[in-house]
Amino acid sequence: MNYPNGIQKNSTNNIINYGNRGMVLEDDLNITNEYYRECDIAIIYKKPTPITIHKVNYKSRDNAFIEKASFKIPSTTDYNGIYKGKYIDFEAKETRSKTSFPLVNIHEHQLKHLDSIVRHGGIGFIIVRFVTLNKTFLLMWQDIKDFIEGDTRKSIPLSYFEKKGKLIEIGLRPRLDYLKYIEVMYEKDEKRDFK
Question: Torsions phi, psi of 63, nearest 5?
Answer without folding.
Answer: -135, 80
